[in-house]
Structures are given as structure tokens and as C-alpha cells.
Amino acid sequence: MAYMNQDKKKAIAPKVNEICKRHGIKATLSVLHGMTLCLNIKWGEIDFFADSGLDPEKERGQIQVNVYHYKDHFTGMSKAFLAEVIPALNSGNHDNSDIMADYFDVGWYIDVNVGRFQKPYIYTGAREESAPVEPTPEPLTMPSTFYAQGIGSEQ
Fold first, then answer.
1. What is the per-residue pLDDT for 148?
2. Does residue 133 form part of some domain?
3. Which of 13, 28, 74, 142 fits a disulfide with 79 by CB distance 3.0 to 4.6 angstroms?
4. Is residue 76 domain-resident?
5. Residue 147 falls inside a structural domain
6. 19 by DSSP, 3-state: which?
7. How close are the terminal C-alpha atoms of the chain, in Å?
8. Is residue 22 within 8 Å of residue 127, measured between CB atoms?
9. Distance of CA 62 to the CA centre of its chain
10. Per the structure, how many domains does the chain have?
């Protein structure tokens, strides 16, 4: 039987938070009905709507990600983020289900929500990569021994 509690969530949270921080995402983890681990994405630098082909106005600023088929529904940075965070949410989970016998045995279920019903996802725009600063070249100077030998003139 699926079971998720606060202790399991606290064990998974550091890895998920590190992934979110690296991708510029603000999200929270919660436990729903004692059997589902929910990742609620509030805002970030990834445009989930552009990467999924969905209209944010029609979807009211929210997407409930299908965690089993996200690779078919998303592209780009969204797909890369989900491909990293969904296995992290499932770390320690098991799935011994037999669908033919109508027998479901999982450690816990996971949900990934981009935005919520009354709090739509806010796309903040991608981080601007700072241009690499080229070092200014040092002016060429002659070593003092060069002048000591009388080859050239010191200016």
C-alpha cells in the first residue's frame, strides 16, 4: 500500500531542492493524503508552457504533469528538468504492480504541478549568461637586464 510521510519527504527534499536551485525553479514539496509526494512549482526560469505547446491563458497558468509520459509532452529545458527531478522524487520508491490482476503495489505516488489553481506559474525569464570577461593585455615591458646591457633605450 502506498505510504508517504513527513520523514520520507524530508529525506528526499535536499536532492529535489538542489535540482530546483540549479535550474532556477522555486518549488515546494508536500504530502497529500499520506500516499502522494507532490512537487508544486511556483515560479522559475523554465517556460513550461512554451516547451509543452500549451496556451497559459487556456490552461489558467497551471499544468498537472503526467509523470509517466512527460518525455512525450515536453521539450527543451522543461524536459531536462523533469527528467532530473522525477527520478529524484522516486528515489527509494518501488513499483510491484500487476495491472492485469488489478493489483497495485507502490511505495508512494508522485504528482508534479506547474502552478496551482489560484496561483498560476510565473515564468521569470531565463538567466542572462554573463559574457566572459577577457583580461586586458599587460603592456609589454623589457626586462631591466636588457637595458643594463646597453641594448635599447629606457624610456
1. 58
2. no
3. 74
4. yes
5. no
6. helix
7. 86
8. no
9. 17
10. 1
What percent of the chain shows pLDDT beyond 90? 57
Task: Kindly report, residue by residue over 21-33, the tens digit of the pLDDT.
Answer: 999 999 999 999 9
Q: Is residue 141 part of a domain?
A: no
Q: What is the pLDDT of residues 34-83, one digit of tens each?
A: 999 999 999 999 999 888 888 777 778 899 999 999 999 999 999 999 99
Domain assignment of residue 117, given as a range: 6-123
Q: Among the residues of 24-54, which ranges form H helices?
A: 48-52
User: Cell triple for residue 118?
Assistant: 489560484
The whole-angstrom separation of Cα 57 and Cα 49 is 10
CA torsion 27-30-32-33 (nearest 10°) is 180
Q: Can you tell me whether residue 78 is helix, strand or coil?
A: helix
**Shortest CA distance to 62 belongs to which of 117, 122, 124, 25?**
117
Q: Which three cell numbers stand for residue 19?
A: 535540482
Name the residue with cell 566572459. 132
Strands 36-44 and 109-114: parallel
pLDDT of res. 22:
94
Is residue 139 predicted with pLDDT exceeding 80? no
